[in-house]
User: Which sequence fits this backbone?
């Protein structure tokens, strides 16, 4: 049997990666987790049946699983545009132009890989035209219109977009905290005491969000 092994993350779709994550969680309940997960990795990423995976000799199977583990552990970059199903999808040019509904769909799903296709539907939309300066225009957001297509988008693009969003959020929060600290340094003792009393919740929320974003970024590296 000729085995086709992915050589880059571009060859692994979001839907396959989601299947793998479910099997990874399930494998924790198995007595022999590594063996079970290795079998499922061969089945999912090499597109073979469980019976076919079991027929591969142990040495070859272990080598392929190692290749797949190294591949899934690799770095990802932010990709601005890609083609899928005959459609060119482009990353939203200006995140600060998001509507409240778009922001909710993005923010509520970007950290959950089970539902991340919703976030990808906000970030990546069909390109409708290009400007002379090389910039592009994208379609208006229409909820789950392209979710089925985006389930087949390469996982490296998904992971790269997520890290990009985390970094952007961390930069924004860090900048906001620095601005607040600068403003506080100009205040009188009375003004500072009043600000700390009334703005304590805001500072705590921003500090907590900054810590969360830092942890998310570290977990991806």
Assistant:
């Amino acid at each position: 049997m000729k085995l086709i092994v992915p050589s880059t993350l571009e060859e692994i779709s979001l839907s396959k990666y989601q299947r793998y994550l479910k099997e990874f969680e399930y494998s924790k309940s198995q007595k022999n987790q590594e063996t079970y997960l290795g079998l499922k990795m061969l089945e999912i990423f090499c597109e073979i049946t469980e019976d076919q995976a079991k027929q591969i000799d142990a040495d070859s199977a272990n080598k392929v699983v190692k290749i797949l583990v190294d591949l899934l552990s690799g770095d990802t970059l932010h990709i601005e545009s890609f083609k899928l199903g005959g459609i060119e999808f482009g990353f939203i040019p200006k995140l600060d132009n998001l509507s409240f509904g778009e922001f909710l769909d993005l923010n509520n799903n970007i950290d959950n890989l089970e539902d991340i296709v919703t976030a990808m539907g906000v970030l990546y939309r069909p390109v409708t035209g290009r400007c002379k300066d090389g910039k592009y225009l994208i379609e208006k957001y229409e909820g789950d219109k392209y979710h089925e297509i985006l389930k087949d988008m390469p996982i490296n693009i998904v992971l790269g977009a997520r890290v990009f969003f985390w970094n952007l959020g961390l930069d924004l929060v860090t900048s906001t905290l620095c601005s607040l600290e600068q403003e506080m340094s100009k205040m009188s003792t009375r003004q500072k005491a009043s600000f700390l009393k009334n703005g304590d919740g805001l500072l705590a929320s921003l500090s907590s969000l900054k810590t969360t974003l830092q942890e998310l970024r570290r977990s991806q590296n």
User: Anything to note?
Assistant: The mean pLDDT is 82. The longest strand covers residues 124-130.
